[in-house]
Design a protein that fits this description.
eight-stranded parallel β-sheet, binds zinc ion, alpha/beta
């Protein structure tokens, strides 16, 4: 299995979490940076651990000040062979509604870097569907919509070939609409992630999430799609290989 989105730099014991994941059959992890320092740490963790790859970016919470200028600092880090994507980046008007223009500038700078370096982009979006779709409409590269929880974006994303990655919140009792969305994503476009240390899936809800728990999310997705969990897991593995260009 693969966990396509984990904040390993936010875990106290990243090598321990990687080891527990491997013991649970999770042999690949895409670790995600949220800012420049976080991206440096994330890359160091990927470098030190087999099967761990890195996405490097500045998330919308970091918008403002000189953040958009610091995107240049990602360029050097992204040359590393284990750096497979730009992100997470995107728009969050739920928590940053007062900085929409700064968020858009930061997002656009990273989209342009991803195009230039031919890297996949990992997108976070919350309460900003219209603007997120507008920015991505102008972007030609591979898009991974992380922690997908905005079913109304499904149609524009499917038309444009985005990958949709589902996190632990798809397992929650009230998430029936999200499970319905997950059921309608084509088999070659679906991914699963933990978003560790956040959003622990239902059976371990309330504990700190880590990549070993991805199995619970895959099982919930399989149930929603009336699919065999093992088959879906290997499907997701193949999709992630394609989405991130993993070798
Ligand atoms: Zn994240």
């Amino acid at each position: 299995m693969i966990d396509t989105h984990a904040h390993l730099d936010a875990l106290e014991d990243a090598p321990g979490a990687v080891g527990r994941a491997a013991a649970a059959g999770v042999d690949r992890i895409v670790a995600i940076g949220t800012g420049i320092e976080s991206s440096r740490l994330t890359l160091a963790i990927a470098e030190a651990n087999d099967g761990v790859f890195a996405a490097l970016g500045i998330d919308p919470h970091g918008a403002g000040g000189d953040a958009a200028d610091r995107v240049e600092e990602l360029r050097e880090l992204l040359r590393h062979p284990k750096a497979v994507a730009v992100g997470e980046t995107g728009l969050d008007y739920h928590y940053g509604g007062d900085r929409r223009a700064e968020q858009q500038r930061l997002f656009e700078a990273q989209l342009s870097l991803a195009r230039e370096l031919r890297k996949t982009i990992v997108v976070h979006t919350r309460s900003a569907n219209g603007d997120t779709a507008a920015h991505l409409r102008r972007h030609g590269g591979t898009v991974v919509m992380h922690c997908f929880s905005e079913p109304e974006l499904l149609d524009s994303g499917l038309d444009r070939g985005w990958y949709f990655s589902f996190a632990g919140n798809v397992t929650y009792p009230k998430a029936q609409p999200l499970r319905a969305a997950a059921a309608s994503v084509p088999a070659d476009r679906i991914l699963a992630e933990t978003d560790s240390p956040y959003l622990a899936p239902q059976p371990v809800r309330g504990s700190r999430n880590e990549p070993a728990f991805i199995r619970h999310t895959v099982e919930a997705l399989a149930a929603a799609r009336s699919a065999d969990p093992d088959e879906l897991a290997s499907r997701i593995d193949a999709n992630a290989t394609a989405a991130f260009g993993l070798r």
